[in-house]
Design a protein that fits this description.
Distance between the termini: 46 Å
Number of helices: 20
Helix content: 55-70%
Strand content: 5-15%
Radius of gyration: 26 Å
CATH topology of the largest domain: Rossmann fold
CATH superfamily of the largest domain: P-loop containing nucleotide triphosphate hydrolases
Largest sheet: 8 strands, mixed
Strand order of the largest sheet: 3-2-4-1-5-6-7-8
Structural class: alpha/beta
CATH class of the largest domain: Alpha Beta
Length: 438
């Protein structure tokens, strides 16, 4: 996401490289290009114009620090204003109430049902909640079945009423059921609707009145760009929702919705969908998003994802094994599985400063470790524990069994041995000796 915008902004800042100081002329040239980049990313014209005007005023009023170059000053100012444009800081979902009632609204095809499942999973794992999903879309064929499938995937129950075509009554009954059975969060999935469909808008207003939700989230398909922003404004006028969810931000989106929507509707973006899997949902942090747009990575989010998979007891055991030089292929495979749980490999790499651009044209997906896993799985338990057993004939057998070549097996074994040595040195605090290559 934001790849094109990131590249365009980087080109814009290059105009200031080599310049001794910020002037009216070079700032005007740079910001003209920045505005074009924002418009190409489908940012609202008025917002793009106001954004660049505010950046210009601050840049020209900036006291030049001798330690900073003009391009660095401009990046800092643009970063601050991008953060402000997207809301400044993270706004958490309101979880007050017992049960907390969360109403999901949006257009058809925006991803409401999938998001409902992701949100239930997110609240269950990260907040320790006991959610109940409610099938309130009684119009779309197979909508109830889809929510049941989603509920099974995240192991969250789904409330349905066979034959009942009144979503208001269904929502009320679901809240009652939650109170009786001890569910502390109720997520009501509703039918997609157009703001111009008066009957459908009256219906969701009636659901709102019936269950008095603590939180109303409007789900937007970010790939629709400015249309998404306009729809968000229309729905807000009718529903006065609490926050926005941007789905499909991992797709071929130009990012205009994420940059414009806060200014247009004055409601925070609370979540972004970053993939198809049920755990591909992130709380929205404006500063972190600004970091990524400007190629600074997002180390905080990367660390948070790592900590979600982090087991302190397992880490202690692993550290002892590394210190004794007993780290083996079984441990190596376990570490690969932990990395895969964190999310898409290319997205994770993009969180490392400077890596986003380097990874742009690389075809990295969830199968990036497939060859390595196949090789390790073709080893016997003894071979995994004691790689020294891997003589020529064993390596040939492993290559045949994994569908790889002996050269690939040799390369993995060599990389593993080097990794093991380096990990032992890091754990014991020894310095690596660099051989004299002359």
């Amino acid at each position: 996401m934001f790849e094109n915008l990131s590249e365009r902004l980087e080109r814009s800042f290059k105009m200031l490289k080599g310049q001794g100081r910020i002037t009216e002329i070079n700032v005007a040239e740079t910001l003209k290009d920045v505005r074009r980049a924002l418009l190409d990313a489908d940012v609202n014209f008025k917002i793009a114009k106001q954004f660049t005007e505010e950046v210009r005023e601050e840049a020209l009023g900036q006291e030049i620090l001798t330690s900073l170059k003009p391009s660095e000053i401009m990046v800092k100012i643009v970063h601050d204003h991008l953060t402000k444009l997207m809301g400044g800081e993270n706004v958490a979902v309101n979880l007050k109430g017992n049960p907390t009632v969360i109403l999901i609204a949006g257009l058809q095809g925006s991803g409401k049902t999938t998001f409902s499942g992701k949100l239930a999973n997110h609240l269950k794992i990260k907040q320790g909640k006991q959610p109940l999903l409610v099938a309130g879309d009684v119009y779309r064929p197979a909508a109830i079945e889809q929510l049941k499938v989603v509920g099974e995937q995240v192991n969250v129950p789904v409330y349905t009423e066979e034959g009942n075509m009144n979503p208001v009554k269904i929502a009320k009954a679901a809240v009652k059921e939650a109170r009786q059975k001890g569910y502390n969060t109720v997520i009501v999935d509703t039918a997609g609707r157009l703001a111009i469909d008066e009957e459908m808008m009256k219906e969701i207003a009636a659901i709102k009145d019936a269950v008095t939700p603590h939180e109303i989230l409007f789900v937007v398909d970010s790939m629709t760009g400015q249309d998404a922003v306009n729809t968000a404004r229309e729905f807000n006028e009718r529903l006065d929702y609490d926050g926005v969810v941007l789905t499909k931000l991992d797709g071929d989106t130009r990012g205009g919705a994420a940059l414009s929507i806060r200014s247009v509707v004055d409601k925070p973006i609370k979540f972004v969908g970053t993939g198809e899997k049920m755990d591909a949902l992130d709380a929205f942090h404006p500063k972190r998003m600004a970091d990524r747009i400007l190629g600074m990575g997002d180390i905080v989010s990367l660390v948070e994802k790592a900590q979600e998979q982090y087991d302190q007891e397992e880490a202690r055991k692993l550290q002892k094994k590394i210190a004794k030089n007993q780290f083996d292929f079984t441990d190596f495979m376990s570490q690969i599985q932990q990395i895969k749980k964190m999310g898409n490999i290319k997205d994770l790499a993009g969180m490392i400063p400077g890596m986003g651009k380097a990874m742009k044209n690389l075809d990295m997906d969830d199968d990036a470790f497939k060859g390595i896993e196949a090789i390790i799985n073709s080893m016997t338990p003894d071979e995994r524990i004691n790689p020294a057993l891997l003589n020529g004939s064993r390596r040939k057998r492993i290559a045949d069994g994994s569908g790889t070549t002996v050269q690939e097996v040799n390369r993995l074994v060599k990389q593993f041995e080097e990794t093991r040595k380096m990990m032992k040195m890091m754990t014991t605090g020894k310095k690596m000796r660099i051989p004299n290559m002359r």
